[in-house]
Amino acid sequence: MAFAPAPIPSRTQYVQEAIKHAILTGQLPPGSALVETELAAQFGVSKTPVREALKTLAGTGLVVMSQYKGVTVRTVDAAMAHEVYDVRLLLEPEALRRTVTRRVSLDPAAEALVRADGAADEAERSLANRDFHRALYAQCGNPLLARMLDEVRDQAALVSTVAWHAAPSWQREADEHKEILRLAHAGDAGGAARALHEHIASFVHRAFPAAAPDEAVAPDEAAASAHPEKGTPA
Question: What pLDDT digit, counting tens, does each position of 61-117 carry?
Fold first, then answer.
C-alpha cells in the first residue's frame, strides 16, 4: 500500500525540532554552519522545509542568518548570556511566585528532577533541566508571561549548554533545583522566588563573569512593593 508523502508543514516541523535538539544538546556547537543542501540530504527532504525551519530558528534566536556567512548556530558570549538571563531574572521568579500562590500541581517539575538525576548523558540532563524550569512558570496563570519566557527558553538553554561544556556544574544546580522545589511545595512563594532568582543570577555570573548588566530588582523587593502588607522577608 502506497503512502502519500507528509505535508510540507510536518516536514518543516520535524527538521526544525531535529536541528534544535542538535543545537541544545551540543551536537551542533555555536558557530557551526547550517547548509541547506547538506541538511536536506541528511533529513531526506527538499530544501524548502529546511529553509523554513532555519527561518523559524532564526526567529527564536538559536541561529543567525547572514548574507555573507550563510546560516550558523548563534555564538554565545558574555553580553548575549547576560541579555538573555536578565530577562529571566525579571520574569521567571515572579512567574514562579504566581505558580506557587495558585497552588497548582508541581508534579511536572518533580518528574523533571527525577529524569535529570537519572540522565544517561549531558544531553538528556540538559533537556530535563529545561523541562524543570518551564514547569515552574507554565501554570503561572498569565499566558502572556509564560509565552514571553518561552521565547527566551531556547536561548537560555543554548547559554547553559555552552557553560556546562566549559565547566560542568550539574550537581550544584541540581541541589539548587531541589531547594527551589522544596520551598514551592511548602507554599513559600516568596522564598521560592528568591531562591530561583539567586539560582539564575549566580549561574550566569559564574559562567560569564564579564559584561554583567545592572542587577535586576530582587523578587522579594518587587513583591514587597506590590504587597506591602506582607513585608519583606530577610
Answer: 899 999 888 999 999 999 999 999 999 999 999 999 999 999 999 999 999 999 998
What size, in residues, is the chain?
Answer: 234
Distance CA 49, CA 10 (A): 9
Matching residue, cell 538573555:
84
**Greatest CA separation for the chain:** 70
Rounded CA separation 177/173 (Å): 6
Cα–Cα distance for residue pair 73/60, rounded to 1 Å:
12
pLDDT digits (tens, 9 = 90+) for 128-173: 999 999 999 999 999 999 999 999 998 998 998 888 777 777 788 8
pTM (2 decimals)?
0.78
Main-chain dihedrals φ then ψ at residue 131, nearest 5 degrees: -65, -35
Query: Could you tell me which residues come within 8 angstroms of residue 132 by beta carbon, excluding any fewer than 6 positions away?
Result: 109, 112, 113, 116, 177
* CA 133 to centroid of chain Cα atoms: 7
Tell me the CA end-to-end span of the chain in Å, nearest whole number: 69
CA within 13 Å, CB half, 81 = 24
Q: What angle do CA 120, 123, 125 make, to 5 degrees?
A: 65
Q: Which amino acid is at 178?
A: K
